[in-house]
Amino acid sequence: MRIRTKRFFFPFALAWVTLAWLGVATAAPADPAAELAEFQQYFKAKFPAVAFNDFADGLYALPGLEDARARWRAAGSAYTRQLQFGKKIWETPFINGKTFASCFKNKGVNIAQGYPYWDKVGKRVRTVEMDLIDCSKRNKGEHVFLTADLSHNADARLQLAQVTAYFYSLSLGKTLNPDVDLTDPDARKAYEEGKQYWWSRRGQWNFSCASCHADLAGKTLGNQPLSAGLGHGTGWPAQRLDTERLEPLHYRYMTCLAQMRAKPPAFGSTIYNHLELYEKLMSTGLPLRAPSMRN
Ligand code: HEC
Fold first, then answer.
1. Pocket probe mutation, ligand 1, options 53, 196, 256, 292, max atoms within 8 Å of Cβ
2. Which one of 7, 52, 109, 143 is separated from 201 by 20 to 30 angstroms, measured CA to CA?
3. What is the pLDDT of residues 30-45, one digit of tens each?
């Protein structure tokens, strides 16, 4: 397959040049708030017909991808069965009689919008999946996702995705707002690492996440329609239209890296947490629509 790319778009570098030219910020790099505004503005300008909240529907909200949208509409809520399995896992007591709800603030209701968050004590980014896994461990759970190799064991990943999907469904429609204080230098470092990863080229095609999800967003590459970076993460876990499997967000990252002909780090690697942090921060303000159906 031959790939045509336009000139690499790097808004943050442009922002730096512009600000420096204005004589504003010659001493400090752009701050995350400015980067957020610029990231969102790029997609709003690229797709002026798309209402802001609709970016949470991924590529199906973008003009020019009507065929994909029709297929998506036809699929409806095909993930419902998986969600029911997730509810069952969530509600089944551990041997000590407690359930997953006991591990979370507000019993896990209306809190998913704050994920991923910065754990000040552990000094790391924490995802919903991490909290669910730790909850099961602490309560001597026997879920297969505790011990399996999640990169390769699809059934274990499915079990994790099911309970994660149920967790997100308890916060459906809440406005995404990851709970991270970027004035904390360690949190800032995690953010910078996620950002760096998003914009760097890698793999045999020398693509970055931005090549497909900014430059080519709304277009089709081979036979694959491409989503905008704005909205990434709002619909996951998602059931894939092709494979009909419910998958966690980080497995989507692994699929993308494989499509870039880059070697994906293992499921559970810290870099995916940092990527999720960056992507969800850039989608701040959008409604959560997880679980969902996705390409
Ligand atoms: C070669 C093109 C390509 C590259 C490069 C690429 N992806 Fe993707 N990505 C896809 C395709 C195809 C899909 C499925 C259709 C869609 O939603 O865009 C997808 C979907 C996604 C989704 C789900 C979108 C949604 O609406 O829910 C996320 C999140 C994502 N990619 C993140 C990334 C990240 C992070 C990187 C960089 C590590 C990356 N992608 C690099 C092709 C790519």
1. 256
2. 52
3. 799 999 999 999 999 9
